[in-house]
Amino acid sequence: MEKTKIEKRFQGKVAIVTASTQGIGFGIAERLGLEGASVVVSSRKQKNVDEAVEKLREKGIEVLGLACHVSNAQHRKNLIDKAVEKYGKIDVIVSNAAANPSVDSILETQESVLDKLWEINVKASILLLKDAAPHLTKGSSVVFISSIAGYHPQVGMAMYGVTKTALLGLTKALAAEMAPNTRVNCVAPGFVPTHFADFITKDKATRNRIEEQTLLNRLGTTNDMAAATAFLASDDASYITGETLVVAGGMPSRL
Ligand code: NAP
């Protein structure tokens, strides 16, 4: 990412991004950091956290790294407590963690998998915000990371898609609940070739088929998602709340 093109919209701000040691979450943390934020990165594995912290520090970003499995209550509390202990407040929360543990059809999905999908993709986001709420500044901003699958829950990722649809509703509901001090928005990415999407994007024929479904004839990048998230989290979007921005190269979503 070229530093020269980047504004400093997050100078003096503190941003927490979950599941941010690689892929879209890392891209968002990097973007917010390059724009001046102190960023708190986290994921399940300490080794991944340490590596992400090192990469961000190399770019001159102020960063705190913590291990946090989002469905672990103690980890979530520790994430918020340590962020506040170090930086004193929270201006931005990007809730990015998700799981897609099964390709089964919905009616074939085991109950334990249904529980896991709900717990990681939806419930953990709510509980993290519960912990964070007392520390959110006036003018703060929350961004959920949903998916194009939230609009079209395709075969092979249908139940995952339904949890992402839930985030669209959660965005509307929490925008009302947290107004006027905190804005709540959502980004719905199209397909981005990350580890998470390997099972789809690694196959050349499938990749070509997805590219053809876009109007721009390409998959998305982590930078595309980071730019949209940074916009919604920034004061450039200060009159936008309760909205979902689809960042999917024109893939079919909604009117
Ligand atoms: P990714 O590249 O595979 O990165 C996943 C990150 O999440 C890693 O840092 C991983 O680190 C961490 N993580 C995984 N499970 C976690 C958990 N339970 N608690 C905390 N951290 C966890 O994935 P991605 O593609 O960037 O996906 C990020 C988000 O974008 C997800 O919400 C996904 O649904 C959404 N999305 C992705 C695409 C796509 O095409 N890639 C499309 C639409 C939406 P550890 O292994 O150390 O935990």
Automatic annotation (TrEMBL):
SUPFAM superfamilies associated with the record: NAD(P)-binding Rossmann-fold domains
Pfam family, one: adh_short_C2
Domain of life of the native organism: Eukaryota
PROSITE patterns named among the record's database cross-references: ADH_SHORT
InterPro entries noted in UniProt: NAD(P)-bd_dom_sf, Sc_DH/Rdtase_CS, SDR_fam
Similarity remark: Belongs to the short-chain dehydrogenases/reductases (SDR) family.
Protein name according to UniProt: Tropinone reductase-like 3
Species in which this protein is naturally found: Ficus carica
